[in-house]
Amino acid sequence: MEISEEEFKEIKEKLISYINNNFPEDKKSSSLDKLDSMNKEELVSFLEKNNILFEEEQCVFCLIGLKKIPSCILEEDEENLAVLDINPLSEGNSLIIPKSHGKVKESTLLLAQKIKGEIKNNLMPLEVKVEKQAMFNHELINLIPIYKDKELKKEKKSIEELEIIKEKILKKDNQEDLNKKEETLNNVEEQEAEEKNLWLPKRIP
Ligand SMILES: [Zn+2]
Fold first, then answer.
1. What is the pLDDT of residues 96-126, one digit of tens each?
2. How far is the CA of 149 from the centre of ligand 1 (A)?
3. Which 3-state string (H, E, C) describes 147-183?
4. CATH code of the domain in which 95 resides
């Protein structure tokens, strides 16, 4: 098994939280020390020896795609799910996840562009960073809004908090529709005005 630096970190984090939650108190610190001292190769051989899998069967993004893990869904198409990150780096930090394990698809990029536009219009960040990431070979797009005078910092949010951010995005969407309607109305009025002008009697100097 080959793992990337990112996966190495992620697996360590998972094991740390597993140890903290499941190990008896007196075993915790020695186990954590042991884990901490492992390099990548040692960790991989430890995982293999103990039959610990962090591949597709346990891929968190596959589980989100299958909706076995609840998430705050912004939008969905046949091949992808756009969700709000539960540990966002900033408000509106979103993940565009292909439902199937593997590479991002053309449709993933399209959905990412769409959500990026919505975040820009609705949450008014300075910019939205678009990053392709992979966790255990499951690629996804990470959209990270950057705000003025706010540093990026992971902060766990509850589903309720995420729902509020989601609503912000959807509400402004409606506002956009309203603006469009207004524009159309104005156009109609302008047209009518132009037509009226045509009927005005010509001035005779
Ligand atoms: Zn996966």
1. 999 998 899 999 999 999 999 999 999 999 9
2. 35
3. CCCCCCCCCCCCHHHHHHHHHHHHHHHHHHHHHHHHH
4. 3.30.428.10
